[in-house]
Amino acid sequence: MAEKKNGPTNVLIVGVGGQGVIMVSKVLAMLCQNHGYEVKQSEVHGMAKRGGGVFSHVRFGSSVWSPTIPVGEADVLVALEWAEALRWINYMNPQTGTFIADTQKIVPPFACRVRDRGADAMYSEETPAEIMENVRAGYAMDATSIAEDLGNLKAANTVLLGALSNSLEFSVDAWLEVIRSFVPPKSIDINMEAFAKGREWAQAGPKRVDENAKGRGVSGRDLHKQVETKLEITEEWCKGCDICVKMCPERCLRLNDQLISELHKPDACTGCRMCEWLCPDFAIKITNTPIMEPAE
Ligand code: SF4
Ligand code: SF4
Question: I need a labelling partner for 97 at 20 to 30 A (CA). Which of 196, 238, 252, 259 fits?
Fold first, then answer.
């Protein structure tokens, strides 16, 4: 996308607290500044605790007057979470906009109304394929699983930046230089790979849905079924902050002698995922696998 003649280029980045919306937005803003564009960036994150909605508007061009993108004028919508993508889709320009979303689903804690394993939760039921039918160009990709396969869940944002790079006219080297300056030195290599994967994914066609997306979360439909829950803790990432222990509604987590979180009452865990969303260090991973009912 070249610089627009009739105004600034608008990129709206959305997700939930703790996912890195602001990092994505800052990378893009710095990239634009490095290229001499005037950039305006506005964001909401102060009130959004982990799990709450976060968004950032980035506008760049030869001159930009307002920091906020009007409804229907985003050239690209980048969503780090599926329901947030749907919530903001009306901001995308219906004729020219590009939709880029991670299929990851984060069920907000308040949506887990019944505390039984596999209990019903409120979550939008539109599938990536249904959404793709209604957008001009778009990518519904399992960025979280791509990052996980590379060995670092946190690199999901960089996978999405790779996909975004396909819609904006900046060189790959310019993107990588900025990303390198934003990520911790020890994760530079993984982030470089994550960027390449996202870019490659988007270059394969103007409209793509990952048919095998794990979605990591549970869909509204899956939540009606019985599930088997697996909780994994990456001990090296746990800093013993105690948040998961205090917030688990079933009181089934505790800190061990090394001040690492552990599941001490596995039978009580409902798989509600609250610990996973609230952990600031991405140290907990919950996998809810629907239990297949035997054929009659
Ligand atoms: S351990 Fe995590 S998933 Fe299990 S009940 Fe507690 S908060 Fe929910
Ligand atoms: S919230 Fe995360 S970092 Fe804090 S104790 Fe739990 S697992 Fe460890």
Answer: 196
